[in-house]
Amino acid sequence: MKTLLVAEYRHGKLLNSTYELVAFAEQIGAESAMFLVGDEGALPAFNGTLYLADVNKHGEFNPSVHKQLLLDVVAREQPDMIVFSHSSYGWDLAPRISLAINAAHVSEVIDFSDGVPVVPVCNAKLRRDVKLKTGQSVLTLQSGAFALTGEPVGNPELVSIDTGASAQIEFCGYEEAEKGGVDLSKARIIVSAGRGVGKAENISMIADLAESLGGEYGASRPVVDSEWADHSRQIGTTGQTVSPKLYVACGISGAIQHLAGMKKSDFIVAINTDKDAPIGEVADVMVVADLKQFVPVLTAKIRAL
Ligand SMILES: Cc1cc2nc3c(=O)[nH]c(=O)nc-3n(C[C@H](O)[C@H](O)[C@H](O)COP(=O)(O)OP(=O)(O)OC[C@H]3O[C@@H](n4cnc5c(N)ncnc54)[C@H](O)[C@@H]3O)c2cc1C
């Protein structure tokens, strides 16, 4: 099995998601080469061939040109899988490549089991094994699904690449999302509300517990989508990434997109009526209880200390 890993470069920096691609290749035991439109000053730690195109010439985001650069490398390497991050860059480039080489395209891969990619379905409540019917395939990996066990190591063997392809779009620049609300990345204690809180009025019991512990409260995406909490409190792939000393997940099932934002917390407590909820896989302590009964009692006990 051979993979071609498509690394990403933004704002003059190599993105850390590059190492999730490396972790994926390691997990499936594949030989791998890497593709990067970047700069020699910021190369990944990687053992293998790195096809490097000059970012100053080709830009950080330039789909038609990057597509041609990548297709030239695919022709040289003949990989079984071309692997992207499930990011805006991957969403744009991966379908262009799969269409050009007539390869199966599997989006949002969260695991690789029995030789096939696994993707979430039904709002991540179920997992589906995807059988590939083409010799080559194009995958995008969900953020946080694959991680190296140690620090990245290695020195890539550089191969410079170039193309005469011309851009069909003009990249005008990045626009920072408006920042507001709470910065949860600095909180040492976070108590988070999931859909299990049931209704907007119950957010106050989560906020009370957070306050009694001297922390902040966060939320899962359904809670934010229901407008029970502000978006600045959302934790996960489309919210904030946090790593507090203590994370208390109340009524949160533990979908991969939520775990990606909090699994680096030092100590995780989950409060859930379902003893088999996936959050149990990362929790240090699993409290099997109805949060509406348990949380107010816990808050009162902490306040009484
Ligand atoms: C592209 C994409 C990006 C996403 N980004 C994010 C993101 O950034 N952050 C995020 O959180 N999600 C994100 N999601 C959604 C994610 O897939 C899950 O749907 C979501 O995390 C589930 O939220 P939840 O755990 O609160 O709800 P559910 O999965 O519905 O879980 C509710 C949990 O509450 C428990 N429960 C119910 N009642 C009680 C009670 N009374 N007491 C205790 N426990 C109870 C249940 O047993 C269940 O485990 C994203 C999805 C996609 C497709």
What is the element layout, followed by pairings?
Blueprint: E1 2-6, E2 9-10, E3 13-14, H1 18-27, E4 31-38, E5 49-54, H2 55-58, H3 63-77, E6 81-85, H4 88-101, E7 104-109, E8 111-113, E9 116-121, E10 126-129, E11 137-141, E12 157-161, E13 189-193, H5 203-212, E14 216-219, H6 221-225, E15 246-250, H7 256-262, E16 267-272, E17 285-288, H8 291-304
Parallel strand pairs: 1-4, 1-6, 4-5, 5-12, 6-11, 7-11, 13-14, 13-15, 15-16, 16-17
Antiparallel strand pairs: 2-3, 8-9, 9-10
The structure holds flavin-adenine dinucleotide.
Task: Characterise the protein shown here.
This protein has 305 residues and is an alpha/beta fold. It has eight helices and 17 strands. It has helices at residues 18-27, 55-58, 63-77, 88-101, 203-212, 221-225, 256-262, 291-304; strands spanning 2-6, 9-10, 13-14, 31-38, 49-54, 81-85, 104-109, 111-113, 116-121, 126-129, 137-141, 157-161, 189-193, 216-219, 246-250, 267-272, 285-288. The protein has a seven-stranded parallel sheet, sandwiched between helices. It has a five-stranded parallel sheet with strand order 14-13-15-16-17. Helix 3 (63-77) crosses helix 4. The relative contact order is 0.11. Bound molecules: flavin-adenine dinucleotide. Flavin-adenine dinucleotide (FAD) binds next to helix 6, helix 7, strand 16 and helix 8.
